[in-house]
Amino acid sequence: MAGEPFPRKVSAVVSGHQQAWTTTVLPETDQFTFWREVVWEAFVPVTLSRSRPDSFFGSVSASRIGPLGVAAIASEAQVVERTVADVRRDAGEVFFLNMPLRGRSTVSQDGRVAELGPGDFAVVDGARPFSLEFDAAFEQLSLILPHELLVPLLAAPEAVTGRAVGGDSGLGAVAAGALRPLFEGVALDGAIARPLAERLAALVALSLGAGAAASGSRRALTQAALDEVERSLGDSELSPAIVAARVGISTRYLHQLFSDRGPSFGRWLLGRRLERCRADLADPGLAHWTIGEIGWRNGFTDPSYLARAFRRAYGVSPGEHRRVAAAKALADAGRGVTS
Questions:
Q1: Nearest to 221 by CA among 135, 271, 156, 131
Q2: Strand partners, 196
Q3: pLDDT tens digits for 253-292?
Q4: The CATH number of 8-211 is which of 3.40.50.170, 2.60.40.10, 3.30.450.20, 2.60.120.10?
Q5: What is the Cα–Cα distance from 23 to 41, expressed in whole angstroms?
Q6: Which of 13, 82, 112, 292 is 20 to 30 Å from the Cα of 191, by its Cα?
Q7: Model-wide pTM > 0.85
Q8: 12 closest CA partner among 29, 44, 34
Q9: Closest residue by Cα to residue 105 from 130, 70, 83, 69
């Protein structure tokens, strides 16, 4: 029946490492519904719309090169929207590089709009809302790059989306020329798939205007995450997902950055909150604040949890630390010692 889920044996034809979908095998009344399933299966959840209610043509041929996904698409006029609700269904920690071969498309993300003609390309981040508009029949190549492959190569990952890269000159032409053969079914030795994927990701990053080497970018992103946590220590709801979104990276990559430097994100956040509480408890200017209020000021909503964590870290309770610090300050004042 029209509108019911399609069995996978109908939806995909598998050849080697390649999958192919087409609407031509179905009745006209089922074609657009089926196309929605194809796009979800091959890419990420999106919301599709079209202007005509009759038959609909669409086909996708998809394969993998190591961590990269490659897909060739041919279809009709449509609007593809990755909404907030779609993102909630699937985090989509991948970038999509879209390159028209025939027809034109409009790519929108993060307040930027890119108009693409044949040979041009643009990148969108699947972890955030975006839209793709096709006003006529088109053919397009799509490269799917995991965050962990591309983000370390970008100085500012959030700044490269929704920007057109011309495919007729400069690094854009070099990147476009290197990417096209991927969609022609070239057989590759599995041992070289990962190194090839990494080199292609580096070429894409250069064409997008990567402003720093990978190591410099990682340091900059780590510092941005540290700064964001420092600004938000008092937010009891602060989480890796929130910090990652504010910095413009994936949650997974945020955890990688912290694992590179030592303590996990959670341990580092707890440590910084405890250090701030310790300093506040010793501050004479905050002597009128209760221990609970100081804990709340630094993101602790449970005073008993603060007490346990504080004792584990410093060997004394928050109250004992405050009394010792107050006695020391009084003694120093009596001796005329200033800080």
A1: 156
A2: none
A3: 788 888 877 889 999 999 999 999 999 999 989 999 999 9
A4: 2.60.120.10
A5: 14
A6: 13
A7: no
A8: 34
A9: 130
pLDDT above 60: residue 75: yes
Any residues with CB less than 8 A from the CB of 39 and at least 6 apart, and which?
46, 48, 60, 80
Average pLDDT, the chain: 85
Q: What is the pLDDT of residues 130-155, one digit of tens each?
A: 999 999 999 999 999 999 888 888 87
CB neighbours of residue 211 within 10 Å = 14
Report the range out of 6-10, 99-103, 194-198, 243-247 with the highest average pLDDT.
99-103
87 CB contacts (<8 Å, ≥6 apart)? Answer: 126, 127, 128, 129
Evaluate whether 20 touches 12 at the Cβ level (below 8 Å).
yes
Give residue 203's pLDDT.
87
Residue 252 has pLDDT above 90, yes or no: no
For the chain, the domains span 8-211, 213-262, 267-339
Amino acid at 321: H
The confidence score (pLDDT) of residue 19 equals 87
Average the pLDDT over 154-181 and give the result.
85
Dist. CA 307–CA 317, nearest whole Å: 6
Tell me the one-letter amino acid at 60: V
